[in-house]
Amino acid sequence: MTTEMICxxxxxxxxxxxxxxxxxxxxxxxxxxxxLPSYGPEMRGGTANVSTVVSxxxxxxxIVSFPDVLVALxxxxxxxxxxxxxxxxxxIINTSMCPHGCKRDDxxxxxxxxxxxxxxxxSQMVLNMLAxxxxxxxxxxxxxxxxxxxxxxxxxxxxxxxxxKNLTAIKRGIEIGQx
Amino acid sequence: MSKILMKGNEAVAEAAIRAGCRLYFAYxxxxxxxxxxxxxxxxxxxxxxxxxxxxxxxxxxxxxxxxGAGKRVMTSSSSPGIALKMEGVSYMAGAELPAVIxxxxxxxxxxxxxxxxxxxxFQATKGGGHGDYRMIVLAPSSVQEFADMAAEAFDLADKYxxxxxxLADGMLGQMMEPVxxxxxxxxxEIDALGNIHNSWCICPNxxxxxxxxxxxxxxxxxxxxxxxxxxxxxxxxxxxxxxEVRFDTYNVSDDNEILCVAWGTASRIVKSAINELTAQxxxxxxxxxxxCWPFPYEAVAEAxxxxxxxxxxFELNTGQMLDDVKIAVQGKVPVxxxxxxxxxxxxxxxxxxxxxxxx
Lengths: 179, 359
What we know:
- The complex is a heterodimer.
- Chain A is an alpha/beta fold.
- The radius of gyration of chain A is 15 Å and the shape is globular.
- Chain A is built from six helices and six strands.
- Chain B is of the alpha/beta class.
- In chain B, helix 1 runs parallel beside helix 2 and helix 1 runs parallel beside helix 6 (143-160).
């Protein structure tokens, strides 16, 4: 089983981190992973994307042409990547920043005002954790427990308040994904 | 040992330190800057020396000096910076100095761009510097292999007293994959490679005999002396060609109708396309040179199965390794090429389309 994912959004929304946490957790769960960021002379507010592959087989190409899962945190990301999602694949749309949505009707859509929900939880910094939660809830690609363990090791002592917000965002995301 | 998720640039730096590299001189350039950052952070912790030189030319000459003192020393850069180092590489080859040079290739010519490319194959394998010399060139295709090659490159450099290049690209440098570091060699194991540093390097004599001295030089003004030196180098290169050829094959069998040849990043994309074609019942094999010099000429010729109608070369350039493949194939079957340039990496779908058109 191989899952190919693209996460895309504005620089600063934490899209690279979404891919990194998914890859890190999947690796901990014993699977093969690759994480390939777009890089270039880009600035805050510019666009960023990352291709993440999780597989039971050795990964040949880390480049994702036809994603099984697309996380689109802004409209340009929908416009750029939605046409290439595999038929029956998943698109996770941040409707707070995607006024035109996604026109495809042959993919599974999870649409939520993610930026607004992140603000409700307490910070735009947890937007990416909300996205990770939705990925877990919708696809079961990784386990919640693995991410929780990862976050604990990063934040438990350094910033317990942010840890709490992150975990809240992931749990909220799982609920949205499972709907 | 557990796996760590790391960028190629960081993994190869860590692996070099574990391989005994304690001296690193470089000048920053995208897309290899994580490598120099990692060295800046870690070298002081292992009593090593990190120095950001004022230029690439300066860095490679620091490498020359440190190698002459018998220490494991490394530099790294990306394409335009490597071009600046090439004079130093020729001097090291002439003076028979071991050192490791990493090239995380980007688009060229000139300043080009900062995206992945394989445009420096000629520069690395056909002599980017002047004179009749060879440099061992290792081409990784994953973060794990990139890291593993650090120790291998130092061992080969020491074994043959010759510069060794790891020829990676922006994708391998920027990508994260799980990596597991192998246990480091002991000094005794390094010495057992046959290169006892004290026998040639500039270092304090154990016996304190001041008359006993070594000379590190690439200048031989007497033609008969230089002739002998170059012939000795040529003999050494012959041993390397005989003993150090490395390659990998994927799905190579007597059923193959097409044989692909690709190296580094390009080979991974080709593998994905082969997987999809295999599912359709089409038999395509791949041979991947791991050493670009010495090139696996015989292995490429032997990988051509009885049903192979075409050898297809894929590179992220306009056809450089292609020349070596043609030498290997010797006109026995047609050799075709397709590549992408400008820092654009081809996709599995594009390769699949090219290969499907052959059936």
